[in-house]
């Protein structure tokens, strides 16, 4: 098919100074993700605090690898989670290409948080409890009800498990938010990407689940795209 994305044809994409191999056909990293992650990286570097992070819904691993590379002194460890085994292989390929030392990461096969319970105790620090300092999440968030708005090349080539989040697009966001705070240290932060058409519903979900400190942000195209949630 001639609508194959150029990134798959070329086999890789550049993302915040990293080379992201796409041989296992994970979702192609997006410019919107690069936009908010750049800000997260700046914050980590400004805070000058050692951090332990989770890249959940990791796909190619682009988010976690960019943090490891751009915050190399401060990011002590990154856990990567995906449900698709080929993407776990992809993450390892990308960690190796970007020369990340094996002591700095763990790759976990899990349905969202189901299999990462054992990790929590490892990340206990005096005063702020167990869990992660940062959780980065770019879940599948397009609603099946918006399928008609999705580009044909995405439907033809990209993995559907990375794109669609149930009928209303909130299936994974709902599941993620239900458990996320248990995995966050006191003072920790969640960066969550969402569909610009579901800001109202995402906010409603945060309220229902009694998250109190959060701030919504727009992407470089002026669309609501990401929210930072803090745990005090
Ligand atoms: C939107 S992609 C994000 C990929 C990458 N983080 C990025 O920003 O380019 C979502 C990823 O979530 C994974 N995924 C889907 N369902 C999952 C689940 N139940 N548990 C863990 N990962 C899941 C998909 O395999 C896919 O790699």
UniProtKB/TrEMBL annotation:
Superkingdom of this protein's organism: Bacteria
Gene3D superfamilies on file: Vaccinia Virus protein VP39
Keyword hit for Cytoplasm: no
Coiled coil, from the record: none
A molecular function (GO) term: nucleic acid binding
UniProt keyword terms in alphabetical order: Methyltransferase, S-adenosyl-L-methionine, Transferase
Keyword Metal-binding: no
A single GO BP: methylation
Alphabetical list of Pfam families matching this protein: Cons_hypoth95 (PF03602)
InterPro entries named in the record: DNA_methylase_N6_adenine_CS, HemK-like, N5-glutamine_MTase, SAM-dependent_MTases_sf
PANTHER family: HEMK METHYLTRANSFERASE, MTRF1L RELEASE FACTOR GLUTAMINE METHYLTRANSFERASE
NCBIfam families in the cross-refs: hemK_fam
Protein name in UniProt: Methyltransferase small domain-containing protein
Organism field: Candidatus Portnoybacteria bacterium RBG_13_40_8
Lineage: Bacteria, Candidatus Portnoyibacteriota
């Amino acid at each position: 098919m001639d609508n194959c994305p150029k990134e798959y044809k070329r086999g890789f994409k550049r993302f915040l100074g990293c080379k992201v191999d796409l041989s296992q056909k994970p979702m192609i990293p997006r410019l919107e993700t690069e936009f908010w992650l750049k800000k997260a990286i700046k914050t980590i570097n400004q805070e000058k605090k050692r951090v332990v992070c989770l890249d959940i819904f990791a796909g190619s691993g682009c988010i976690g690898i960019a943090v490891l590379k751009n915050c190399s002194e401060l990011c002590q460890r990154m856990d990567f989670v995906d449900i698709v085994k080929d993407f776990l292989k992809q993450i390892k390929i990308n960690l190796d290409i970007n020369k990340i030392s094996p002591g700095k990461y763990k790759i976990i096969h899990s349905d969202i948080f189901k299999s990462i319970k054992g990790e929590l105790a490892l990340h206990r620090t005096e005063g702020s409890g167990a869990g992660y300092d940062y959780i980065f999440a770019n879940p599948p968030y397009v609603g099946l009800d918006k399928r008609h708005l999705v580009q044909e090349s995405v439907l033809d080539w990209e993995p559907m498990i990375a794109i669609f989040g149930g009928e209303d697009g909130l299936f994974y966001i709902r599941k993620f938010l239900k458990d996320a705070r248990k995995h966050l240290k006191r003072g920790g932060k969640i960066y969550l990407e969402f569909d610009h058409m579901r800001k109202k519903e995402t906010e409603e979900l945060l309220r229902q689940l009694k998250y109190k400190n959060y701030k919504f942000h727009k992407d470089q195209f002026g669309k609501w795209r990401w929210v930072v949630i803090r745990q005090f």
